Amino acid sequence: MGTGGRTRRWAAAVVVVASVALLAVGSLGVVALGAGGAGAATKPFDLVGTWEGPYRYPSPDGVVRESYQRLVIERQDGANVWGYDEFVDKDGQTLRIPVLGTVDGREFGLAEKSGFFSGRILARNRVAVRFFLVGERPTSFHTVLTRRTS
């Protein structure tokens, strides 16, 4: 075999190596762009406002009760929020309990003295929430709340 065969094989090997290198660099660029896009800081959803809606919940005494939920977020600092949970209890009294929590993407969580909300943002003025009451008379409910004011 003459030098022409070796030269062609060597040239073919260089082309293969160069192609693999370009693919690798291209892949790294895509990964870097993807990571930059996903990891880029985004402004948290503005949860400030009065969110309201009806709900039904199972009571510990075996009765399904109806009530009305008002969740007021008074202040937001970045992803952190503060406000209060206002609802009508089984005796018809309006109760107000402080809440605080965080917003992360399209989800949020709020804690209060004896329970917590787990929520998902559906639209600018609609959120789905699930509330869990813990303690001596635990219960839970799910509802969709609409923002009445912001």
Describe the fold and architecture.
The protein has an eight-stranded antiparallel β-barrel with strand order 1-2-3-4-5-6-7-8. It has one helix at 3-39; strands spanning 49-58, 64-77, 80-88, 94-104, 107-112, 115-123, 126-133, 139-149. The chain has 150 residues and is α+β, with helices and mostly antiparallel strands. The protein is 25% helix and 52% strand. It is globular, with a radius of gyration of 28 Å. The chain has two domains: 1-40; 49-149, Beta Barrel (Porin), CATH 2.40.160. 13% of the residues are buried. The model is unreliable at 6-39 (pLDDT under 50). β6 and β7 (126-133) form a beta hairpin.
Please give a handful of descriptors for the protein shown:
2 domains, single chain, alpha+beta, 150 residues, 25% helix, globular, 52% strand, 1 helix, Porin
Radius of gyration: 28 Å
**Within the largest sheet, what's the order of strands?**
1-2-3-4-5-6-7-8
Distinct helical segment count: 1
How would you name the oligomeric state of the polypeptide chains in this document?
single chain
DSSP summary, beta strand count: 8
Strand content: over 45%
Which stretches are low in confidence, meaning pLDDT under 50 for 5 or more residues running?
Answer: 6-39
Structural class: alpha+beta
Please state the second-level CATH architecture of the largest domain. Beta Barrel
CATH topology of the largest domain: Porin
Largest sheet: 8 strands, antiparallel, barrel
Percentage of residues in helical conformation: 10-25%
Tally of separate domains = 2
State the end-to-end distance: 82 Å
